[in-house]
Amino acid sequence: MSSARVNLLNQERLNRSVSRSVALFSWEYPLPNSFITDLGYLVSSIASGLRAIGLDVHVVVPGNGDDSDDRLGIDVLRLGMDVRDHPNVIAYGLSLPAQIAKKLPYLLGKRVDVVHGFEWGGCLMALAYKLLFGGSKLICSVLSTEYERGDPRSSNLSASIASIEEYVFSQSDELLIHSKPAHSSMSSNYTIKSPMLAVEDAPLDTILEVYAL
To answer: Boundaries of each Glycosyltransferase subfamily 4-like N-terminal domain copy (predicted)?
Structure first.
C-alpha cells in the first residue's frame, strides 16, 4: 500500500475517533501587533492543525477586554482582567481561574470535548473550565518547568510556582512534554501520576493523536 494511501487511512481514522470540539488555554496567542513567542507559535500550530481536520476550535487567552473574533476559522476569546496590577506572576496566574468561572460561561457557554492548557497558567484556566462544565478530557502541555527557569530550592516564589505546576499537571489526563530538558526536569523533580508523552520531535499529526477519545 502506498504511503499516500496509508496517510489517508490514518487521517480518516483520526477524523472518526477524535473529539469534535476543543478549547485551548494559554498565556499567549499570536495576535496583530503582538510578539510571537515559542509558546504562542505552539498554540497557534496546534489550533490550526485541529481546525484543518474539521474540529470546532476555541482559543482562550487573557486580554485587555472581553471580546472574541474569528481568525481563519478559529474562535479566539480574550478575557479582560478585572484587576490589572498584580504583585507577582503567581498572583496573576491564580487570578485566571476566577476570570474563567466568571466570564467564560457568557463567552463560550458550552462544554467542549477536550480542554488543553499550555504551561501552568493555561493549565489552571483549563482545569477551571473542566471543573465548571465537567466531563472534558484535560491535556496539559509543558515547554519548560520552574526548575529550568528559576531555583525552587532557594527562592520562595520559585518554589511556589513549582508547587503549582506539580498540582495542576497532576490533574491532567495527558501530559505533553515539548522539550527534552523539560522531560528530564519533570521526571527528576516532580511527582506526576498523569501519563507523560515526550513530543519534542514529534510531528503535529502525532501530537493530535492524543485528542482521540
So the answer is: 43-177
